[in-house]
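User: I'll paste a sequence; please echo it back and then give the predicted structure.

Assistant: Echoing your sequence first, then the prediction.
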Amino acid sequence: MLGLQGYHGGGTGGTDQRGSSGQDLASELAALTRTRDMLNEELRASRVAFDQARSEGISSSKAVAAEARQLQTELRSSSEALTQSEEAAEALRHEADRWLGRIAEMEQRRSELRAEVERLADCEHSLAVEEARLVHDREESVVVEPVVQGLRRS
């Protein structure tokens, strides 16, 4: 400590080996007391700061833990929503495949109907040709019939 090295005196007003008076020791003691008080005050301030930092650290840790829990909850919700979206997308894909199959069936049926329409058009044409031939044959028979009957009588 300051200035007390080598002090061998006992009681007030004594002298140390250097010849200091009691008054010098009293002022040195007062300085040491002020230093002690200042160090005690710094220690108290340090303890307050430490306690505050620890409290903030605990509060901060609690806040971080709460935020982590919140993020986990949000992640879980997002994951569930993603799963539901994937399931919905899969259902839509199946529905689209079903409709594409129906469209392909309808295209096939349309193709078959076109072929049938063409066949019917060919039949209609053939019937028209046959009708024209029959009309022609009937007209000829109208002209030829009296001749045939006349030949049969004779």
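The first helix runs from residue 22 to 153. The chain is about 85% helix and 0% strand.
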